[in-house]
Here is the input.
Amino acid sequence: MTARVSFVAGAVERRKQAIDRLARAFGFAAATLLIAPLVAVIGYLLVQAWPALTWSLVVENPARFMTAGGLWAPLVGTIDVVVFSLAIAAPVGVLAGIYLNEYARDGWLKRLVQLAVMNLAGIPSIVHGLFGVGAFVLAAGFGRSVLAASCTLAIMTLPVIITSTTEALASVPMAFREACWNVGASRWQTVRTMVLPNAMGGILTGIILQVSRAAGETAPILFTGAVFYVAIPDRGLAAFFPYGIRDPFMALSYHLFVISSQVTGVSDSLQYATAVLLVLLVLSVNAVSIAVRYRLRSRARW
Amino acid sequence: MKRIAHALDAASEPIVEAVIRLCGWSAIGLVVAILAFVVAQGLPAFANGLDLREFLTSVNWRPDSPVKPQFGMLALLTGSLAVMLLAMAIAVPIGIAASIYISEYCAPSTRELLKIVIELLAAIPSVVWGFIGYAVLGPIIMRVTDAAIGINLLNGAIILALMSVPIIVSVGEDALRAVPDSYREAALALGASRWQVAWAVLLPGARNGLLAAVLLGVGRAIGETMAVLMATGHAVQIPHSLLDPVRTLTATIAAELGETVAGGTHYRVLFVLGSVLMLMSLAVNLTAEWIVHGIRGRDAA
Here is the structure.
């Protein structure tokens, strides 16, 4: 029989473990603090908005100084501006991403472009708004319009599209390109037939994410095109395309700002319902992007 | 036929390449254009009677005064800095603790879940956060404290902290995971607990990345507009307590640009405020970049 040896934690070890447990608990609390606001905010908004959440909220136009009716006009305005801004930003952003990852040689020029992209992403949204007013509304003569607001939003979303495109391209293995070059393909042929198809998923996810960002932004469209109220047709095809490219428009985000802090007499439930619709719009776009990403990751062929 | 297609392909190659390069360089052009334009729109204000000394040192912001309009930026700048600092005081400890928890403690499945939550939290539009501050947090603050109005410095800072935490956590977590596993293994082999690993190995190892994460949060907090416009109240003053309403640079531009005459002094002064904001964000971003890439980045360039 050998004597059983038992290891008992000494004072130092016990103290070490106690601190570790404490740190773990603190970290857990901090992580919970991240989840709690998301759940609390969405839950509270939903509860408060419940009486106003009907189908007519989505399909009807605002009425009686925004105190009644639905949110169709601002919803369509938001969709219009987002589509236009991405139509401008996506091609330029993707090509710029291709430049950074496929064409630019390491050197001061590439570094300068990278710095510019990063700083462009860091410019406060209200400064984008100022630039939009001065450059697009006044200097270019677009007036307060869908066009001016879309251009402003396009500049704002551009750097993030560039970054996500560059990342997506960088994840395509170098061997793919080398195989292409070895059969005599030029640089652009390689990009077009090999790199782009393989990076398409990642590029699309990045662009989808910008849909949600552009839909939620308020400051850049505040003075470049969004207005309090535009009367638009209730029915027919015209209700789907109410704003001309040179017309001012209503937007969901600006509408929320207006009815919650600028106009009085709007019922609480309508205010909360507007917030809920905006959050749902943004989060569902995000959910699509996350789902696409997970699907792609599980299907990656290399 | 094949030969023509081939010739077209060969001919289009230089055009395509030129377009791609042009798009790549457009980012530089845009940053320079925005900076030059905003500054150029603001500069004539100094010729139109804006006194630089008053602008920098006065707390009086009375752009609409019929007697003598006064444009003192000090209270607005203080407001921006106060909201930002308070927001960071809340967001940085929570953000760093959460990123340590996510990268070191929790199970992979929980990590995926938390990362999705952070992404969704970052996606909530600023106007919705502003609405939450205005309609939800304001009344709560009034009930808990005996503040006269609920939209104030504290309210804005809490909202801004909630908005900055996701960016701090995601960048901070990347920085922590960039520390090589061999460092962790070496410390664990010496008998260190996870916390000792995090405190003595990871925090120093990821110091630069974490600092950059904090700076990105600072940049976001200074530039945020709609949330502070709706949640901080509208008094132009230097705050003396957490419950004083304040006005920030961003909120001032957003609130007043609509009422100005294009080309007037007030309009131009708002562009000067925009230039100040832009220079602050450039400084913060370049510092973050410099911290991460350091001298090495410049040598490689």
Notes: Chain A has a mean pLDDT of 86.
